[in-house]
């Protein structure tokens, strides 16, 4: 596919589709409505693009992979490869020198801050979960509001979905888990144990083990709606 004559606007739309931020049906509509993309791609490549059945996931997936391999980078940074809402492992923004912190503790929330890429000037909302999951949750500032990260429970819920492979070798001896449980109970007095299990990488037995100690040591209010049961085997 010829990509050397693409306009910046077309490159942006193609990148948004390639990384998954633009649904296939919206991309197909854009292709047909664009007044310039046929000339930019050339007749042969344009016919190839409009011949794809975007209702067939395998064809859409294959085309996205092709675009990711051939599209030119709009800037000498990695912002164009990141989805509008994404995550990266703690401290692995590459290269780190590309971004600067523009606001700290946004709305008074200690895990929230804003970043600006000094190369492409993309502004990012960032929520850092460094106690349990060690990841940065990021969202382009140009996107919709991000109310989920305004609470600690919401932060942990998003982090757990993003870092689904996190597990503790011996969670009963963790110092981070009871600290997280204590903060959850402080934020949500009477929080059910089932909600704690839903946002932390632990089972009901481990959650119960820590919760009864957090209740005793910190006078925390936790509803023990899950009963401790012996582990199988």
Give an account of the 3D structure.
With 233 residues, the protein is an alpha+beta fold. It is 40% helix and 15% strand. The protein is built from nine helices and seven strands. A five-stranded antiparallel beta sheet has the order 1-5-4-3-2. The longest helix is centred in the C-terminal third of the chain and has 15 residues, at 204-218. The protein is elongated and about 70 Å long. The mean pLDDT is 90.
Sum this structure up briefly.
By secondary structure, the protein is an alpha+beta fold. It is built from nine helices and seven strands; from the N terminus they run αααααβββββααβααβ.
Highlighted features:
single chain, 233 residues, alpha+beta, 3 domains, 5-stranded antiparallel sheet, two-stranded parallel sheet, 9 helices, 7 strands, 40% helix, elongated
CA-CA gap between termini: 57 Å
Please, what is the average pLDDT?
Answer: 90
Query: What is the percent of helical residues?
Result: 25-40%
- Trace the largest sheet across and list its strands: 1-5-4-3-2
Oligomer category: single chain
What is the N-to-C succession of helices and strands? HHHHHEEEEEHHEHHE
**Which runs of at least 5 residues are low in confidence (pLDDT < 50)?**
none
The main sheet comes to: 5 strands, antiparallel
Distinct helical segment count: 9
Give me the Rg, rounded: 23 Å
Shape verdict: elongated
Number of strands: 7
* Structural category: alpha+beta
Estimate what percentage of residues fall within beta strands: 5-15%
Domains (count): 3
């Amino acid at each position: 596919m010829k990509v050397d004559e693409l306009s910046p606007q077309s490159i942006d739309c193609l990148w948004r589709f390639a990384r998954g931020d633009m649904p296939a049906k919206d991309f197909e509509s854009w292709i047909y409505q664009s007044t310039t993309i046929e000339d930019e791609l050339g007749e042969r490549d344009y016919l190839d693009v409009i011949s794809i059945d975007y209702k067939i996931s395998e064809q859409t997936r294959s085309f996205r992979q092709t675009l990711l391999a051939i599209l030119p980078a709009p800037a000498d940074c990695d912002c164009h490869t990141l989805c509008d809402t994404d995550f990266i492992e703690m401290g692995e923004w590459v290269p780190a020198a590309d971004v600067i912190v523009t606001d700290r503790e946004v709305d008074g929330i200690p895990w929230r801050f804003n970043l600006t890429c000094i190369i492409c000037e993309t502004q990012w909302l960032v929520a850092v979960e460094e106690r349990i999951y060690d990841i940065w949750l990021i969202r382009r500032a140009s996107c919709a509001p991000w109310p989920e990260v305004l609470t600690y429970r919401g932060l942990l819920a998003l982090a757990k979905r993003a870092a689904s492979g996190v597990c503790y070798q011996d969670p009963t001896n963790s110092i981070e888990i009871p600290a997280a449980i204590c903060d959850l109970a402080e934020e949500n007095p009477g929080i059910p144990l089932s909600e704690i299990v839903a946002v932390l990488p632990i089972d009901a037995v481990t959650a119960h083990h820590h919760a009864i100690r957090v209740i005793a040591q910190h006078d925390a209010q936790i509803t023990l709606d899950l009963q401790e049961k012996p582990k199988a085997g």
